[in-house]
Amino acid sequence: MRIRNLDTFYWIASLGSFRAAAEKLNLTQPAISARIQVLEQDLGLQVFVREVRNAELTPHGRRLLPYAERLMALEQDVLSAFSSSTTVEQTIRVGASETIVSTWLPDFLGHLNQTRGGLSFDLIVDATDNLRNALVAREIDLAFLMGPVAEVSITNREICAYEMIFAAADQIANQFPVWGLREIADQPILTFANNTKPSRQIRELLAPHAATTLDMTTSASLGAIIRLAKSGLGICAVPKAVITAELAAGQLVELTTAIDLPTISFTASYVSGSQFSGLMAGISSEVSNYLKDRMIKNIYQN
Fold first, then answer.
1. How many independent structural domains does the chain possess?
2. Which of 28, 72, 232, 242 is deepest in the core (most CB within 10 A)?
3. Structural domain of residue 273, as residue ranges?
4. For residue 171, how many C-alpha atoms fall within 13 Å in the half-sphere facing its CB?
5. Total Cβ atoms within 10 A of residue 297
């Protein structure tokens, strides 16, 4: 029995389809099917139910899966134990919110490249809801997102939090020496995508104080929000850490206000019991240690 066939079985069972496993392993679907056929011949039984759309395990397949999981975990343990000398490169699929990518993630991945050998990263930048769905579907291995992810299969580790502020171009920011809820609510508001927790919190905070309907522009792209704010379109509500350069250059001005916006918290989240769960736990721990002295007043300091 070839280990690669058990590896293929594991990924089909984990990802839920032959197509997804083929994409993961960079193989054609006929090649994937051929490996499973050989595995079933070696075992003398069927591990997947025929004539169903998704990859449904037979009772024999469900019995085999824990053995395949243990084999994959052992493979990962071997690679981790010899990470300083191995020539085998592992690709980690990382999903991250734009806030994380705009602050510490590039520096951390560079740090990780120096401290851990044999790792490469396939990075996806997306909104938290999309990252959560991708993680649960096992389309990514590790997510840095506004967590935690409320799924039994997911392990969450708190890693950092960011202070949220109101800021605007100086022609808007200088209209009032001190801004109250009513003054802010009467301006166009620019912030996170509509279905995110910060966006909902800001809407709930400001909507009761707007003279008419709250004018709120939302986007999954923080870069777009910041550019709109710099152009004078309205007041942005964003993490202070992502606009430190704009604040220093005077392109944006933090509003003077007694309003405390809720901080936004991020977790490192990964699938429990997967092939990579041990490695993901180690990376998550390294993130916490890396940020310990670099997150000062919720602002990343390189």
1. 3
2. 242
3. 90-162+264-300
4. 6
5. 8
Q: How confident is the model at residue 79 (pLDDT cuts 50, 70, 90)?
A: low
Residues 70 and 141 in one domain: no
Strand partners of residue 119: 90
- 134: which 2 tokens? 């991708």
* CATH number of the domain within which 243 lies: 3.40.190.10
Burial classification of residue 173, based on how many CB atoms lie within 10 Å of its CB (0-12 exposed, 13-18 middle, 19 or more buried): middle
Question: pLDDT digits over 202-236, tens only?
Answer: 999 999 999 889 999 999 889 999 999 999 999 99
Q: Are residues 7 and 26 in the same domain?
A: yes
The tokens describing 190, both together, are: 């620019």
Which tokens in the block code for residue 28? Answer: 């054609």
pLDDT for 68: 82
Give the burial class of 141: count Cβ atoms within 10 A of its Cβ; 0-12 exposed, 13-18 middle, 19 or more buried.
buried
Q: Tell me how far apart the alpha carbons of residues 140 and 195 are, in angstroms, rounded to a whole number.
A: 21
Residue 97 carries which side chain, given as an amino acid letter?
S
Whether 259 is covered by a domain: the verdict is no
Nearest-CA neighbor of 99 among 167, 161, 189?
161
